Automatic annotation (TrEMBL), chains A, B:
One of the Pfam families matching this protein, by short name: PQQ
Names of required cofactors: pyrroloquinoline quinone; Ca(2+)
Organism this protein belongs to: Methylocystis parvus
NCBIfam families, per the entry: PQQ_enz_alc_DH
Superkingdom in the source lineage: Bacteria
Protein name: PQQ-dependent dehydrogenase, methanol/ethanol family
Residues covered by region (Disordered): 255-276
Record's cofactor remark: Binds 1 PQQ group per subunit.
UniProt keyword terms in alphabetical order: Calcium, Disulfide bond, Metal-binding, Oxidoreductase, PQQ, Signal
EC assignment: 1.1.2.-
Annotated binding of pyrroloquinoline quinone, by residue: E75, R155, T207, T289
Length: 635, 635
């Protein structure tokens, strides 16, 4: 064995960008594959497969599983790409003679990532053993884990141009040949190309999935708890060349905002809007990171995403609206130029990051069919906007517990149009530094955090995993040091209905984005930290922190199936088909912010940025460990 | 939450030793429980349950799973104890008032261990969520992992006297209250009692399961690759008091051998037999460790187990028979005194540890019904002995590849009676130091290693997981330093039929211990490193290194079922019943000696004591991660 020198030819893939864009868009239309980390460009997380129905979903059994070899929180979901060409592999015998150890073949491949150390597996879906075709083990400094705010998570891979893209925790973006893997590079375990998107010594990390739209791969940056100035960057899928970068704060030349043409609630934003709502140079360490999911509308050629909290968490320390933290962005894919912005939580006082996904689903509102964007924000409001113009159409609470704002002002003639009307009692700015503001709902992790929702066109419902958690929040003053925590608040979270003796901390709900109303809601013992999947079988899936995969009737919410996987589920459910059979897959492996107590071994109630105590009883249900579980109907 | 001070009353359990012995023996007779790490005192690993049959086993599905939160090799199996009394739990509120957080209740409990760090979970089998009743997290120095020869494995827990016993990697033996867990002690996470059985600074470690027989808990010691002098020790289940210790080598007073009464092949062994086949003081660092499974015959009041290899692995360095390494032992449970010994591999030259389990199954041989002991040794011979007298009845190769010895001399009148007739070509002693002896079969990990076999009385068959591996072995001289490796040989293993282009390294066989013949044999791609379970349903189960749980017809070996679990299986299959339903459970989590390349991240062919290259292709099938999988028939 040690006498064999393994080699692998790089898969030869079509070279022309046009052909590649086609390859990607053809695959994206095929419900049998799961080509993008969000299921599609619109972030619907919907599967058109329908072998599994409300009638038979109760019969699902575990078909196969794969332990990832990594503990801690497993977010995201694998990709499924059909008909990947796996190149021949050769070796050299003792006498230097080359021989074939594996013939070239074509198969359906699942690409699976892990949290730090961000191992990538290519699994053969047509092989009865689901053999590992290739594996990539990044070499990264383990120190990076210490600067990841909310567990050492990674939200997945992207596919495009015959390549697989991984954004490592240390912000390195790497590209592999989908067929040959990392071995496709000139050296073993070397990717086709890699670029550094940030600098961990300054607090930069990466947890978000990269997103490929046409011939670009887009990546964000995390580190809002380290004063990182957020940005989104487009790289050339072929070469890794940086094409454009748009910051969340700073001068127009760096935000790529056009003072005349970029609008906020219909009006041009004016010059240097990313600077002039900050004191002095604070925008340089002002947060607005970009660690969520991105969407793309090919007709408008616009990319949508949200920016995170302003740094620090102590609002008194950073007067002003702190633009453009907490903002929904629409950028031109080719140039990065900003079409419109909408800031949901000006001058954040609660860490209500605005990064949650933008779901591009057309909605008929007031008789008018809108190219809409629906967004369930951490701050507890669900927003429906016109995604062409950025017009605000609906903004309603999606958890009745929300109390920090009375409502969002929808009066176009009001001075506070589009702004939340903050309730003094729950304003950590109003109450001031070193004062513990009690009973703010939602908690910092919001009514929804990274766990993505799904849209089902058949019922026109949004299926939303939610948290039902409040907090006490005490801001304090601190100074910025590069690479050091820049949090500035002490938190403690608790169940929203604790006073009524009801300790549940989550719900899975169906939302009407036209009316801004909950259609049905299923209480969950714990926050639903897993992403939802709706299907044309009329079934919606999600996972729970105890470890269940659950299936409900999309229309009614009626529970049709549940099965406890090896560990708590914070991954996102996907569906795919191979060799004529529909499968439902989900990663378990408890962790994330909600599971940080288990993941990082913390036990003091206010550790883990205030989350540990609220989820302490999770330790009675599950333990760490990453496993992919794939369900199917029995033969 | 942080304001609550958790407390727990210790379960009050019957105090009289007689009652406790009864409790244990009554439970041991109940096929619905799995009370001992070996299934029973006789090491049959047989379940009398028969809801799952040859007819319906093909329908098995995964009922529930539990991720252990630990990577690396998961050996052993959980225990299942019925009707355990779980004590009330109380907490104290802000005002110091005590209130009940959990009422006392009675339930069926599964006790699950992990490899280092040796976490113990008590799981509620009657709770639909299989909630964690208690958990114990030992505090041990992680340095111990570096002195564990063959992965950081642990082979399980023992039950007795209402207590659960764990032998930690660092040789600490701890006792918990079965109902209250470690919290039952005066401090949180403190066991009822604990004792140090060895000293890791001298190379002592613990991997074996403790064994409770009557009112004693017996533990062994590992470290044969560090020159550890093996011993077996009996502690009082109540107090942890050391009752007796019997060494494998040394003076009679320490081996507990009686020169007149203790016999070897029918003859008294004479004075200081544990010294006089060693040069000088070599017996002090001479190995003979005791890291395997133990059996007990209550009628004879004898305990049976095997001792491991003499240290070092370089035979030229330790002239003589090196007694009593490589020996089957029969000791009186109450006194530790030795009734008889049988040394299988005098003066070992290949690391053929004799620790494999002794199966106590009566056999009719030559028309005479014998209280027999059947043992599948690493050296490739399967031995049938009379367990009353230690008389050798049968000794035959259980893999035709075995070539180091022509046979075991069965001629009672021969000078070499009972000894293997070593073939010079494969004698690393004969060929000498610094000479690479090529093509020795089996390899050091034997035709069978720790993976225990099962006995099915209905068919009178022994179901044996086996290896089919050979090696090159080059001994070299080295000197002893306490706590440092004392191996003295370089190895490289390879598939036994490599020259024929057949790369399989395992088989699962059925053995006739009367005739000494293989009845049927199923080839396996990889060594079968998992323990077998036969059942009264006519089905035998075992796991594979790729991760399959397999079920075969005990009579014919016909494969009836297979299902790939999340990781490679090196655990032992068990069966239990709760609430009227039969379950089959197995730990997956690849590792052990065969899986050491994956477990410890080694890649050079001769690393991992020569095992890495032989199992390199395992990396194409599976990755690390401990998960318990429980199968059942669909409702
Ligand atoms: O501000 C940031 O840069 C940043 C990064 C991350 C992250 O990268 O995971 C989270 C958050 N903030 C955050 O506020 C948050 O609630 C959160 C939850 C999680 C998670 O994976 O469970 N990550 C993050
Ligand atoms: O000599 C010893 O003390 C000793 C200890 C152990 C162990 O404790 O696991 C093994 C061995 N030897 C050994 O020779 C061996 O083949 C082996 C395999 C395994 C395993 O768990 O896979 N352990 C051990």
């Amino acid at each position: 064995m040690n006498r064999l020198l393994m080699t692998a030819s790089t898969a030869i893939l079509a070279a022309c960008a046009g052909a590649q864009a086609d390859d990607l868009s053809i695959r994206l239309k095929d419900p049998k594959q799961w080509v993008s980390p969000t299921g599609d460009d619109a972030n619907l997380r919907h599967s058109a497969l329908k072998q599994i129905t409300t009638e038979n979903v109760g019969k699902l059994v575990i078909d196969w599983q794969f332990s990832t070899g990594v503990l801690r929180g497993h977010e995201g979901a694998p990709l499924v790409i059909h008909n990947v060409q796996i190149p021949e592999q050769t070796a050299t015998d003792k006498n230097g003679k080359s021989f074939v150890t594996r013939k070239a073949f074509t198969t359906d491949v699942m690409y699976l990532h892990t949290p730090f150390p961000n191992t990538v597996y290519a699994l053969d879906l047509k092989d009865p053993d689901h053999k590992i075709i290739w594996k990539y083990q990044p070499e990264q400094d383990a120190q990076v884990v210490a600067i990841m705010c909310c567990d050492s998570v990674n939200r997945g891979l992207a596919y495009g141009d015959g390549k697989i893209f991984l954004a490592q925790a240390d912000t390195t973006l790497v590209a592999f040949d989908a067929g040959a893997g990392a071995i496709g590079g000139p050296k073993r375990n070397e990717p086709l190309w890699s670029v550094k998107n940030g600098d961990p010594s300054k607090g930069h990390t990466s947890t978000a999935a990269p997103h490929v739209f046409k011939d670009k791969v887009l990546v964000g940056i995390a580190g809002g708890e380290f004063g990182v100035r957020g940005h989104i960057t487009a790289y050339d899928v072929k070469t890794g060349k940086l094409l454009w970068r748009g910051y969340s704060t700073g001068p127009d030349a760096e935000t790529l905002i056009d003072p005349e043409k970029t609008t906020h609630l219909g009006k041009p934003v004016g010059k240097d809007s990313g600077i002039n709502t900050w004191e002095g140079e604070q925008w340089r360490t002002g947060g607005g990171t970009t660690w969520g999911w991105y969407s793309y509308d090919p007709e408008l050629n616009l990319v949508y995403y949200g920016s995170g909290n302003p740094s620090t968490w102590n609002p008194s320390q950073r007067p002003g609206d702190n633009r453009w933290s907490m903002t929904i962005w629409a950028r031109d894919l080719d140039t990065g130029k900003v079409k419109w912005v909408y800031q949901m939580t000006p001058h954040d006082e609660w860490d209500y990051d605005g990064v949650n996904e933008m779901i591009l689903a057309d909605q008929t509102i007031g008789g008018v069919k809108r190219k809409a964007l629906v967004h369930f924000d951490r701050n507890g409001f669900a927003y429906t906007l016109d995604r062409v113009s950025g017009e605000l159409l609906v903004a309603e609470k999606f958890d009745p517990a929300v109390n920090w704002a009375a409502k969002v002002d929808m009066d176009k003639n009001s001075k506070t149009y589009g702004r939340p009307l903050v309730v003094d009692k729950y304003s950590t700015q109003h109450n001031g530094e070193d004062v513990n503001t009690e009973g703010v709902c939602p908690a910092a992790l919001g009514v929804k955090d990274q766990q993505p929702a799904s849209y089902d066109a058949a019922t026109d419902l949004f299926l939303v995993p939610t948290n039902h958690v409040c907090m006490d929040y005490e801001p304090f003053r601190l100074s910025y040091t590069a690479g050091q925590p820049y949090v500035g608040a002490t938190l403690e979270m608790f169940p929203a209905d604790r006073d009524k003796g009801d300790m549940h901390t989550g719900a899975f709900i169906a939302w009407d984005a036209k009316a801004g109303k909950i259609v049905w809601s299923n209480k969950e013992a714990f926050s639903v930290w897993s992403g939802a999947l709706s299907t044309d079988g009329g079934v919606t899936f999600y996972g729970t922190l105890e470890g269940y995969l659950k299936a409900v009737d999309t229309k009614t919410g009626k529970e049709l199936f549940k099965h406890k996987t090896p560990s708590g589920v914070i991954g996102n459910v996907i569906s795919y088909e191979t060799s004529g059979k529909q499968y439902v897959a989900v990663l378990s492996g408890v962790g994330g912010w909600a599971g940080i107590g288990l993941a990082a071994g913390l036990s003091k109630s206010n550790e883990g940025l205030g989350a540990v105590g609220n989820y302490a009883s999770l330790a009675n249900y599950t333990a760490l460990g990453g496993v992919l579980t794939v369900f199917s109907l029995p033969n």
